[in-house]
Amino acid sequence: MKTYLFKFEQDLPIPLAETWDFFTSPLNLAKITPPQMRFEVTSPYNAKTKVYEGMIITYKITPLLGIKMNWMTEITHVKEYEYFVDEQRFGPYALWHHEHHFKEIKGGVHMTDILNYAVPYGVLGRLSNKLLVGKEIKKIFKHREKAINELFGVYKKPA
Predict the structure, then answer these.
(1) pTM
(2) How far does the chain reach from its first CA to its final CA, in angstroms?
(3) How many angstroms from the chain centroid is the CA of residue 131?
(4) Contacts of residue 18, Cβ cutoff 8 Å, sequence gap at least 6
(5) Contact, 87 vs 61, CB < 8 A?
(6) In angstroms, rounded to a whole number, what is the distance separating the alpha carbons of residues 62 and 37?
(7) Closest to 11 (Cα-Cα) out of 126, 103, 124, 141
(8) CA distances to 25, 68, 71, 126 from 92, in Å
(9) Per-residue pLDDT reduced to its tens digit, 58-91
(10) Measuring CA to CA, how many Å separate 85 from each of 13, 14, 55, 78?
């Protein structure tokens, strides 16, 4: 199985506690996901629910070509105000391991996402990653960057 690594970094102009509060609420994920994915959390959580180790989150998504599917992830690691990890239990990928890291910087927070993933179906999966899946993941994170900037403002490095 061929695995792929995607890394994304963004600085946010908000305090660490506010950043952590936003990103550890499963319901907020829909706010930063492209609308065409029709991302919906189907787990019975409310806005006050925060991630914890062992947490199972279920979703309905439309990742490609208008095909709706179920997705389930588990929060496998949490170190408060530093990082959490979600891993796919079932869904569109053969492997999905997504690390969310947060580090306080002057005037805000530096956020790093590290995504290791694999596409099923062997050679066909590798071809689909090259032609479609990899590009779609980049688009999702580009949309996410824009949505985060709209929600919290653009980070400007302090003088």
Answers:
(1) 0.94
(2) 47
(3) 21
(4) none
(5) no
(6) 5
(7) 103
(8) 22, 10, 7, 14
(9) 999 987 778 899 999 999 999 999 999 999 999 9
(10) 23, 22, 11, 7
